[in-house]
Design a protein that fits this description.
Radius of gyration of chain A: 18 Å
Number of strands of chain A: 1
Oligomer: heterodimer
Order of helices and strands of chain A: HHE
Structural class of chain B: alpha/beta
Shape of chain B: rod-shaped
Structural class of chain A: mainly alpha
CATH class of the largest domain in chain B: Alpha Beta
Strand content of chain B: 15-25%
CATH superfamily of the largest domain in chain B: Response regulator
Largest sheet of chain A: none
Number of domains of chain B: 3
CATH architecture of the largest domain in chain B: 3-Layer(aba) Sandwich
Number of helices of chain A: 2
Largest interface: A-B, 34 and 34 residues
Helix content of chain B: 40-55%
Distance between the termini of chain B: 216 Å
Number of helices of chain B: 12
Chain lengths: ~60, ~400
């Protein structure tokens, strides 16, 4: 469950990073750090999509 | 027979017309019957309404009113017609001028539904302000659908294709028939006990009667109170049930519901690739900017030829010291000249020089220079200083 929660958070963080790296003046060091963080987020997110498999559960009335 | 004892045909027909026109009971009345002999003319439609006793009334429906009918009437339709009785004086015939037609059986149900809808609307159940936003990245979606229905299959297929990261909980229910409202309510209550992010209530198209379970008041109220964001997809585009009004989002098909409930993984993957590109480009740009900065710095004279920065200063120092030297020299020169002139002036004043030129200087015994005869008396000893020595003499006389 928390892995799925993390998807949205990671995607939000990734967007922040791209925005920052594209639109602000950063020191080379800070830019490198963000670049690495962004790339590892992309890998994580792609991986969770690749590995995802829909779980289906049927919930009937207890009778 | 006397003339005033009979009517003309026209007068009689006119009298009948005025009686009928004046009778409120024959205006705006509902008549139930089956349509037969449907004929269309430029101005409108002529047809008969027939009942089970084969009694017939001729009807006229003018073209303007036809445009507003909720369905397309045809022979054999059981209908309820709203209209007024009128008389055609020229033919001595009466007919029923129809304002509107409804298919029989729907009228009452539709009116009741309309009344319920108005009531719920007045209570605020359909207010936009009450609508909850649909989460963008659901981790769990609940489906209230007919067991093994096409809607269920469609939803599962589309949700797993678009967003396999979420779990699907199916709450099967009857979706038509008299038990359907109760079943749907139970399924909704079951769904409310789970931790789903979005609830979808879906059913394929059907007749108004088929969809009537989704107009149930208790179900509508329960859904209004439900805290889970809900998408409804019941029937086709034109069918709107009460739960469509109360749900947070209404779509017309199960596929539409799946699309509204989930992000599309293809789009997200494209966003990820786009982000990767953006990061690479931004990094490349930053690096080349830094490189340019470095290049332009190292191209500056300071780094290119560091000694040139000192050469100027060195020259300045040299010039200054030269000037200093020169002014010092000048000062010395000036002082030397001054000393020289002073010393020659001093020289000129030296009495010794006068003596050297052949003069002598006379002093008394105590060494005081004698400049007047009054200073001395006869018998005093005087000293005369000459160029090459001193003479001591005695005053014998003075004048």
């Amino acid at each position: 469950m928390e892995k799925k929660q993390a998807f949205e958070e990671k995607l939000t963080r990734l967007n922040e990073i791209v925005e920052k790296v594209e639109n602000t003046t950063l020191s080379l060091e800070d830019a490198m750090k963000l670049y690495e963080e962004g790339n590892s987020l992309i890998k994580d997110l792609q991986k969770s999509l690749d590995e995802a498999e829909t779980k289906i559960q049927v919930i009937k009335d207890k009778q | 027979m006397e003339q005033n004892k009979y009517f003309s045909v026209t007068a009689l027909n006119t009298l009948i017309k005025s009686k009928i026109d004046g009778d409120e009971e024959l205006h705006n009345v509902y008549v139930k019957g089956e349509i037969s002999n449907w004929k269309s003319y430029n101005s409108g439609f002529f047809f008969d309404l027939v009942d089970e006793k084969k009694s017939v009334i001729p009807c006229i429906l003018w073209g303007d009113n036809y445009l507003y009918l909720p369905f397309e009437p045809k022979n054999g339709d059981e209908v309820i017609a709203l209209g007024s009785v009128s008389v055609y004086v020229g033919r001595g015939r009466y007919n029923f001028t129809v304002k509107t037609l409804e298919k029989f059986g729907q009228g009452a149900a539709l009116l009741a539904l309309e009344a319920l809808k108005k009531k719920l609307q007045a209570e605020g159940l359909f207010d936009i302000s009450h609508k909850k936003p649909i989460p963008e990245f659901p981790k769990s979606i609940g489906l209230i659908v007919g067991d093994k229905s096409a809607a269920e299959a469609d939803l599962i297929k589309n949700i797993s294709r678009r967003w396999p990261l979420c779990e699907i909980l199916v709450f099967p229910s009857l979706v038509q028939g008299k038990d359907a409202p109760k079943e749907l309510l139970k399924a909704l209550r079951r769904a409310e006990t789970t931790e789903i992010d979005i609830l979808i209530i879906a059913r394929g198209g059907g007749s108004n009667e088929d969809l009537s379970a989704f107009n149930d008041e208790a179900l509508t109220r329960e859904l209004y109170a439900c805290t889970i964001p809900c998408i409804s997809a019941v029937g086709h585009e034109i069918d709107t049930t009460l739960i469509d009004y109360v749900s947070d989002l209404r779509v017309s098909t199960p596929t539409g519901a799946a699309e509204a409930a989930t992000p599309d993984q293809q789009e997200i993957r494209a966003i990820l690739l786009g982000s990767e590109d953006a990061l690479n480009t931004a990094m490349k740009n930053l690096l080349s900017k830094k490189r340019d900065q470095l290049n332009s710095l190292s191209a500056r004279p300071f780094f290119k030829n560091p000694s040139s920065n000192y050469a100027k200063a060195k020259e300045e120092v040299q010039q200054l010291s030269k000037r200093l030297e020169m002014s010092l020299g000048h000062l010395f020169e000036m002082s030397r000249n001054q000393v020289h002139s002073l010393s020659s002036r001093l020289d000129a004043l030296n009495p010794r020089n006068v003596i050297n030129r052949g003069y002598s200087m006379t002093t008394d015994e105590r060494g005081n220079i004698v400049t007047s005869v009054k200073q001395i008396a006869e018998g005093d000893t005087l000293k005369s200083v000459l160029k090459d020595g001193t003479i001591t003499s005695k005053v014998t006389s003075k004048e």
